[in-house]
TrEMBL record:
Location of the protein in the cell: Periplasm
Alphabetical list of InterPro entries matching this protein: Bact_solute-bd_prot1 (IPR050490), SBP (IPR006059), TAT_signal (IPR006311)
Transmembrane in keyword set: no
Designated name of the protein: Extracellular solute-binding protein
Similarity comment text for this entry: Belongs to the bacterial solute-binding protein 1 family.
Length: 447
């Protein structure tokens, strides 16, 4: 828990406008110089004596938390609003958020997971005014941000602040020894690489436990890459399909090449195994590279030179099908200080705070606003590039349907994770696991 109590007068200016150009190269080359017309900030009268409590996920890279708290301290200095930040474990963030929603008490602002805000939209403050201002100023929201941020009525119930991408993290020297110059872009060669790595005693390993980030990202990629989905465009459950069976059969072959023990892995597990030299390749955010670069252990620090990143290979569906762990900011209606809460969110999304936060995290959180593609963090180290367009490219959990209670609940219940784990552990055949996933999902998607 961290408290900031220093007071000062409000000095927030309108700041820079959005980029006028289009395209990633244009953003990156001219962000500081090319600005749109001034966009006036919403006039939010902060309540007298306002105090805020913020709940967010615990750090996975130290720079994330350090800069977030520094930005919050700056907000307190400039507004006089006391802010308490609680950093909650990844596993406990969702249940604690749900409790606050159900009892109408607790944190004012929450940095929630994925589509959790869609479980209780009637308990959240309308953020449309702030979201539209930020969109106009910073080049527009990516479509995935609008999907996660807007409720069924088109109003913003939340504003995604970033997503951690589940890219391929690998030891280049070991991949080269296995016969590949880089990560294959097709799944057949990816499986061959996995087999060669295992033969060389450098197996890969992905999380198969109920891992909020790493387990969800790769198991959803597996299903989507074969053309399968939990639901169709009308929210009809369709997971028990030939495409799912094919995905699970491929997944079983892939997992057979993994290091033992991945069925119990949570989000920290593959980081530890990779940095210990136990695995050659995993699915992760940029945190493994960050940890190696900043390690006080010379042996671990030396690994950074051999760590590279790549996007996931393309499956039979013929197009990228990547997922990401998204963080969605929202304000509960039970807050006594709604204007202070909205002003806080506006403040942390502004360039002066947002870009340093991304830089301190070396891009662990990819941006939802197009203008932040111009952040130098994406070009100062080529190894960051694989994470630069996570929110531009990612699909949503609940694909191909709409977001709402059912999509959030099925994700929270780890239905896709568990289906893949059942097959890969040998506890169920692909057909049995798909049928069980169908039954579980239909409990939430009631017609």
């Amino acid at each position: 828990m961290t408290k900031f109590t220093r007071r000062d007068t409000l000095k927030i200016g309108v700041g820079a406008g959005a980029l006028a150009g289009t395209g990633l190269l244009g953003y990156r080359s001219a962000f500081a110089e090319v600005m749109a017309a001034d966009v006036p900030a919403p006039k939010l009268a902060i309540e007298n004596g306002a105090e805020l409590r913020v709940l967010r996920p615990a750090k996975f890279v130290q720079g994330d938390e350090t800069q977030f708290l520094a930005n919050t301290e700056r907000f307190t200095k400039e507004t006089g609003v006391k802010v308490r930040v609680d950093n909650e474990s990844w596993e406990d963030l969702r249940p604690k958020t749900a409790v606050a929603a159900n009892i109408g008490s607790g944190p004012d602002v929450v940095l929630a997971w994925n589509d959790d805000p869609h479980q209780y939209p009637d308990k959240l403050i309308d953020l449309t005014e702030v979201a539209e201002y930020l969109g106009k100023k910073y080049g527009g929201w990516y479509p995935i941000a609008e999907r996660y941020g807007k409720g069924s009525d088109g109003k913003w119930i939340a504003m995604p602040i970033g997503a951690s991408g589940g890219a391929i993290v690998y030891r280049k020297s070991w991949v080269n020894e296995a016969g590949y110059d880089e990560i294959p872009t097709d799944i057949d060669n990816f499986l061959t690489l996995a087999k060669n790595l295992k033969k060389n005693n450098h197996p890969m390993g992905f999380a198969l436990g109920n891992a909020q980030g790493d387990g969800n990202t790769w198991t959803h990629w597996l299903i989507w890459s074969h053309g399968a989905a939990l639901v169709d465009e009308n929210n009809k459950v369709i997971i028990d399909s030939p495409e799912t069976i094919a995905a699970l059969e491929y997944g079983k072959q892939l997992v057979d090449q993994f290091i033992p023990g991945t069925l119990s892995w949570l989000d920290p597990s593959n980081n530890k195994a990779f940095l210990a030299g136990e695995i050659s390749l995993t699915s992760n955010g940029i945190s493994v590279y960050y940890s190696a670069k900043n390690s006080p252990d010379p042996a671990v620090k030396a690994l950074a030179e051999d760590i590279y990143h790549a996007r996931f290979p393309v499956g039979p569906v013929g197009k990228p099908t990547e997922a990401g762990l998204l963080v969605n900011t929202m304000v509960f209606k039970h807050t006594k200080y709604p204007n202070a809460a909205k002003e806080y969110l506006r403040f942390i999304f502004e360039k002066e705070q947002y870009e340093p936060w991304q830089q301190a995290s070396i891009g662990y959180w990819s941006h939802p606003l197009a203008a932040y593609a111009g952040n130098p963090i994406w070009t100062e180290d080529p190894k960051h590039e694989a994470y630069s367009e996570v929110m531009k490219n990612m699909l949503w959990y609940g694909y191909r349907g709409s977001l709402g209670y059912a999509s959030a609940a099925t994700l929270a219940d780890f239905i896709i994770n568990n289906m893949v784990a059942q097959v890969c552990s040998g506890r169920a055949t692909p057909k049995e696991a798909a049928a069980e996933a169908q039954r579980r999902a239909e409990r939430y998607y009631r017609t």
